[in-house]
Amino acid sequence: MEHFDEAWSVICDYCRRQMTDVAYNTWISKIEPVNMDFDKRQATLLVPNDFHRQTLERCYKILLKESFNAVFDTPIDINFIIPSEEPEQEENDEITDNGYEYTFDTFIVGNSNKFAHAACLAVAQNPSKAYNPLFLYGNSGLGKTHLLYAIGNEIKKNDTSKSICYVKGDDFTNELIESLHRATMSEFRQKYRYADVLLVDDVQFIGGKESTQEEFFHTFETLYLAKKQIILTSDRPPKEIKTLDDRLRGRFEMGLIADIQPPDIETRIAIIKRKAEIMNIEIPNDVCEYIASNLKSNIRQLEGTVKKIKAKNNLDGEKPSVKSVQKIIADILNNDTPPEVTVERITDEVARTFNVTADELKNSKSRSAYVSGPRQVAIYIINELTTLTQESIGKEFGGRDHSTVKYAIDTTAKRMKKDTNLRSIVEDIIKNCSS
Q1: Which domain holds residue 357?
Q2: Where are the alpha helices (DSSP H) in 183-209?
Q3: Is 4 in the same domain as 137?
Q4: Left (φ > 0), alpha (ψ -120 to 50) or beta: where does 317 sit?
Q5: CATH of the domain at 24
Q6: 226, 259, 292 — which closes off a domain?
Q7: Is residue 274 part of a domain?
Q8: pTM of the model
Q9: Deepest of 85, 229, 242, 248, by most Cβ within 10 A of its Cβ?
Q10: CB–CB of 145/233 below 8 Å?
Q11: Is there a single domain that holds both residue 252 and residue 128?
Q12: Across the strands, what pairs with 252?
């Protein structure tokens, strides 16, 4: 089944580009690939429950079939099953996972990342004594997460007693909210403040959230004073996270800051060859050079291309050639355009930033500052980033009239002139929605 696992990651990437993060995380990310019958052109996917299956059938099956077709260049039937319908494995069955391993051995070092790699290796070999905190930054798809996991894996390999805690910035916020709601803050703090190593991916997402930043500050202080290792990643250096609390910015800048740049062509070719070796597929030199010459800024694109080549090879036995990968490259380049800026995407981003729900923003009649302020921000950004008329925007927000929409836009504009923190938050939301 390992080749289906490899193709599935490409399929997920395709779906992710067509959906909001909320929809993807709710419905697609919870699917597990079970089996791919290449003769019958049929895929079996495991989903959590029958409600999940019905929702996928009704809302997302067309997108999934489209994504399968994009990967395999042929229509694929999809069969959803739930755990009670999953075929039992024989006791001696071995399910192999030949996925990409996040270790230093599988990380390709080049001029663009050798400083960051050296810093991470030093931290892994001497945690809390080399650089603490270590802050990695760079654009998406350049290997920050790989290095983050490599540190954790290396530390755990050297000392199995070490407690390694990994979390994404927005998940930290979500867990905090859930813990407050369920009155389980002691368990939340136990998880994060007693770790030996804290790995935080995309820490920029805690910016602009007062309660999250307060909690994270105390978590950071507790770990730092206890001489525990902290490693953070972001898409930008601390000084450019405008919505970040000054206390946290200062803490993040105390240690070492290392950036990762897009790889040069030699490094890109090496990445392709290493990935092909891991996936047990031979890709000729001219094909490697062709891929590396066309995909220049994102390592995930290189890995996704190799996965798709392997999937096509398993499906029809086609050996990689420049001609056969031209369509793969074209598909990836076409899908690399920024997703459309929609009302749903903007409201989801505003809701995530202000710790409210998208439904509260759009449909709640509440006039409390907790909801009305973020709602006005959402309306302002929609007016800035879309071509909707103010009347149409009002319809998106529970049928509010034109004057209410205009008031929200004008009020937010005036607040931004006086409140530099709000202006920074709005600029960050606009950046996240436009990228």
Answers
A1: 343-434
A2: 185-193
A3: no
A4: left
A5: 3.30.300.180
A6: 259
A7: no
A8: 0.64
A9: 229
A10: yes
A11: yes
A12: none
Can you give the pLDDT at residue 412?
Answer: 92
Instruction: Report the phi/psi class of residue 185: left, alpha or beta, with left for phi > 0 and alpha for psi in -120 to 50.
Output: alpha
Q: What percent of the chain is predicted at pLDDT more than 70?
A: 92
Per-residue model confidence (pLDDT) at position 101: 66
Q: Which of 63-67, 120-124, 319-323 has the lowest mean pLDDT?
A: 319-323
Domain count, the chain: 3
Tell me, yes or no, whether 313 lies in a domain: no
| Residue 344 near residue 357, CB atoms below 8 Å | no
**pLDDT tier for residue 313 given thresholds of 50, 70 and 90:** confident
Please give the structure tokens belonging to residue 179.
Answer: 């813990």
- Can you give the CATH number for the domain in which 148 is found? 3.40.50.300
Taking Cα atoms as reference points, which of 140, 15, 5, 113 lies closest to residue 70? 15
- Helix (H/G/I), strand (E/B), else coil: 288: helix
β-strand pairing of 32-37 with 42-46: antiparallel
pLDDT confidence of residue 92: 36
Q: Are 435 and 338 in contact (CB under 8 A)?
A: yes
Q: Let me know the angle formed at the C-alpha of 179 by 173 and 181, rounded to the nearest 5 degrees.
A: 105
| 99 within domain boundaries | no
Alpha-carbon distance of 162 to 201, in angstroms, equals 19
The residue among 56, 107, 407 whose CA lies nearest residue 274 is 107
Residues paired with residue 167 on neighbouring β-strands, in sequence order: 200
CB of 431 closer than 8 Å to CB of 207: no
- Is the distance from CB of 197 to CB of 229 less than 8 angstroms? yes
Peptide bond preceding 338: is omega within 30 degrees of 0, i.e. cis? no
